[in-house]
Amino acid sequence: MSNNPLIHIFGEVLIDHFPDGSDVLGGAPFNVAWHLQAFGQAPRFISRIGNDLAGHEIATLMDTWGMNRDAVQKDCKHPTGSVRVIIKDGEPYYDIVADSAYDFIDTALLEKKDTAGILYHGSLAIRNPVSLAALQVIKASHQGKVFIDINLRQPWWELEILVPLLHDADWVKLNELELAALCPEGFKDQGLEKIMQAFCAQFDLETLVVTCGAKGAAAYDKQLHFITVEPPASTPVIDTVGAGDAFASVLLLGLSKQWPVEVTLDRAQAFACALVGRRGATVTDKEFYQLFSEQWH
Question: What is the pLDDT of residues 77-119, one digit of tens each?
Fold first, then answer.
């Protein structure tokens, strides 16, 4: 158990069904929580699973990995979340099943106490008003940083719901296409640094991180620092599913441990590069994480 601030992770856990017939545990918030657990952070994962085979599998895997599931609710009415992953030209696309258990995170079952530390949430689990209301209850009693990981999955997002959440955030992570979709009018052709600066100003952010796929990533912070990082040219890629979640988990780790932004960005890139060399968004080999923990200690 670490002495760092507790990290609260809110959002979906689901099963990714791949074209080759394999099933892999997923959901951006779950992937992030999984990685943070392996890095010794013991995050509090707030979600909801069905009372079905997939839900039981998730509960068992969380127990095996040592994750706390006190805040994982069980739903007897809605199935555990699932996604059909389609790979086109090496890029993953997602067919996300509606009305899944994580869409119905129940406000009444949330712990009635203030939370401190870092609160992470994505943009998919708030597609349903029920889970959005649960997030708002958690945020109302949260003391500390709020980190939003944007994943714009059509048709599961609405600008008018997302904008107030961006105004509440301290840290935001998204990719280049998502930045283009959300950036202020008049800045679309200004170049990455200018667009990031405008986005930070619009939402009064502490730090904005933009992932750029094979080109690496960039960060812009309140001190007007613009930092970029590139992956090694020789990075082997098996699949890119979950690369952004791996990146986000190390951003949260750096935020928790108060690493400088440039150090955090370098380490996040290194970890994401290692992950894309494996199948799936999570890794069950603890030695995989141990190597990074030892380098970063």
Answer: 999 999 888 888 877 788 899 999 999 999 999 987 778 899 9
Neighbours of 260 (CB within 10 A): 11
d(C-alpha 32, C-alpha 43), whole Å:
9
List of residues 6+ apart from 262 with CB closer than 8 A: 219, 225, 227
Residue 231 pLDDT grade (very low, low, confident, very high; cuts 50, 70, 90): confident
**Within a domain: 295:** no
Instruction: Report the number of distinct structural domains present in the chain.
Output: 1
What range defines the domain where residue 31 resides?
Answer: 7-287
Amino acid at 295: Q
* 246 located within any domain: yes
pTM attached to this predicted model: 0.93
